[in-house]
Amino acid sequence: MDDASPRRLDEEPAVTGEGRGDQPGLLPSDLPDPYNLPELRIYSRSSIFFWWPVWLTGYILAAITYFWGERLPLSNGTKILVHPDTGLGITFIVVLGLIMMFTNVRLRGIYSVVGLLVVAFVTVLFAWLGWWNSILHIIPQLTVYMNFGFYITFSTLLLVIWALRFFIFDRLVFWRVRPGQLTEEHMIGGGEQSYDTRGMLFEQRANDFFRHTVGLGSADLLLITTGARKEEIDIPNVLFANRKIRTMQRLIAIKPEEALAKTQA
Fold first, then answer.
1. What is the mean pLDDT of the chain?
2. DSSP letter string over 86-116?
3. Is 12 a domain residue?
4. Are 200 and 182 in contact (CB under 8 A)?
5. pTM over 0.85, yes/no
6. In a 3-state reduction of DSSP, which class is residue 30?
7. How far is residue 260 from each of residues 189, 231, 257, measured CA to CA in Å?
């Protein structure tokens, strides 16, 4: 008669050599726990991150207006706080315009440096020839005054949007790099997609000088997977890109079992 004794529920079936290659008799509890492995999280930042100079400039100009501005009465009896120097308003508009241009037009590599040098050269040349006064006299009413309330309201609204995007919405989707595995994870919905890192290629796209400077060393990363499902994964606006790439290379070079042995040592 066959032995039909029931198996205890707390017994763990052994994983034979068919399921684990050359490691017969391995139990599931002996397998590496991915949560104990070293990892790196990569977040792709939105373009709104590069707008921090706008709200920072706004707060600086608001402080200057508050301490050295003048109170001007309006016809309805309201008094507004305005700085008498029109240079503050023009400065804010210039910063806002530059940020809008450089966040929507990408000049990679040498083109970004050449573009900035051309702008600086034209600015200095016009000043040396004395053309700026002539240009400004074409529009005699070119005076820009912004009161204290405008700087505070605009900068605070932009800061709130910037903080929500940076600390919450940009973190809803991220890439997790572990030894031997790359996973795209979604905080909402719980979806994820994994890739084998064996033979994976990394490429850091040519830097946009402006974004690299204002964006804390940010760059666009291109990951190319190998195997039956070959894909190109583009991760834009990764902060501290050079450091992230070095860490990714070290993690991918480590086998999962070696990383687990180091964590348990």
1. 79
2. THHHHHHHHHHHHHHHHHHS--BTHHHHHHH
3. no
4. yes
5. no
6. helix
7. 29, 28, 5
